[in-house]
Amino acid sequence: MALIVQKFGGTSVANTERIRNVAKKVQKELKKGNKVAVVLSAMSGVTDQLVGYTKEVSELRTAEELAEYDTVVASGEQVTVGLLALALMSMGIKAKSFLGWQAGIKTDKIHSKARIEGIDVKVIKDALKKGFVPIIPGFQGITDDNRITTLGRGGSDTSGVALAAALKADRCDIYTDVDGVYTTDPRINPKARKLQKVAYEEMLEMASLGAKVLQTRSVELAMKYHVRTQVLSSFSDEPGTLLVDEEEVMERRLITGITYSKSDARVTLIGVEDSPGVAAAIFGPLADGEINVDMIVQNISEDGKSTDITFTVAKTDLKRAIAAIEKAKKVKYKKLLTDSNVAKVSVVGVGMRSHAGLAQQMFKTLADKGINILVISTSEIKVSVLINEEYTELAVRALHTAYGLDKK
Ligand code: ASP
Ligand code: MG
Q: CA 20 to 30 Å from 191, out of 74, 205, 211, 271?
């Protein structure tokens, strides 16, 4: 007998008919002789609406205000867990819902983007032992001073994986509206293929580089605790994509996926003084403002006097980034340029560790299409380039073909 954590996303529980469908998925797993614990999202659209309400009455600036925000937005999941318990009971299945605090989901105090610190699984284990299907709301937890927290948007993936880790479950199935992880976004490239297995590390890169199937934090947890995590659709019976250790990815491939993201903007400082401490003077105020910087390039100046620095920040942070730099007295530059019409395209694959020339293949492919590269950044298993946004689809398709990923 295996213990499976099933997590269902917002589209899978979007209405009562779909909640009945989820109940059938649970039943199917039980019929195999397995034990099941369930984690749910709110009905799709509900969290957005709840967030909207809070913004209508508050600027949400202080920690106390964000604590109340959490009280409001955590409520969406309360509805779905109760409804699923009722649906299962109507099928003669023993089920019981537990809110985050009842289920012992302890988090830190960073309201609206809290992190799970531990799960006291006693209540859930007890319920499982007594033959119940415990149903837990994703996205929420409790601080040690008894306040409700939420984990950041999309956080119920993280709840699912964290619960699977804490229960030492045999697998965590993340049911969503796509049937797995693809070599690239099938919406912009019909030749995308579904992957049977992806290494945790590849998934981590892909999630943070724009593949929206899983919350990045959930992949981090899966990797850390070696949780066998499967991404699959609640609307079909097909197997999905399994996240596994690198050694287990048997398919011999060099590149696993191509991702893109249109959420970043480029900032360039022209004529920055070339002396020690300049980078620190620029990036210090950004860090203080909690503005994440992603790609960075700085060149060496010919005359040793001035140089240019380019970096990217989230489009949503651009205004604040400019303000932070303009306010930083220590930063001297001639001109500040920004560009929001950029996209980051990345190729990801653990094969990069052992094969040379994969980056060059990317540059050549883009050059052949006449696409100019603005910024390049690399890690051991990925190469990212910043390009003009209008070439995103073209670049993704060309790279997909060049690395032999197209569906046959
Ligand atoms: N309901 C929350 C959200 O929409 C959490 C989740 O769905 O993962 O962000
Ligand atoms: Mg979701």
A: 205
Q: What is the mean pLDDT of the chain?
A: 95
Q: Which-ligand-closest: CA of 152?
A: 1
Which atom of ligand 1 sits closest to the CA of residue 139? 5
Entry field: residues in the chain? 408
Six token digits for residue 346: 């990345």
Integer Cα distance of 320 and 345 in angstroms: 24
Query: Using CA atoms, how far apart are residues 185 and 405, in angstroms rounded to an integer?
Result: 12
CA 127 to centroid of ligand 2, rounded, Å: 26
* Residue that wins the pLDDT comparison between 213 and 293: 293
**What's the pLDDT tens digit per position in 252-263?**
678 999 999 999
Q: Among candidates 4, 36, 10, which has minimal Cα distance to 23?
A: 36
d(CA 135, CA 139) in angstroms, rounded, equals 13
User: In angstroms, what is the span from residue 39 Cα to ligand 2's centroid?
Assistant: 11
Which of 77, 107, 95, 101 shows the shortest CA–CA distance to 35?
Answer: 95
Question: Which residues partner with 261 through β-bridges?
Answer: 344
**DSSP-assigned beta bridge partners for residue 347:** 258, 383
290 Cβ neighbours under 8 A, 6+ residues apart: none
Cβ contact 256:348 at 8 Å:
yes
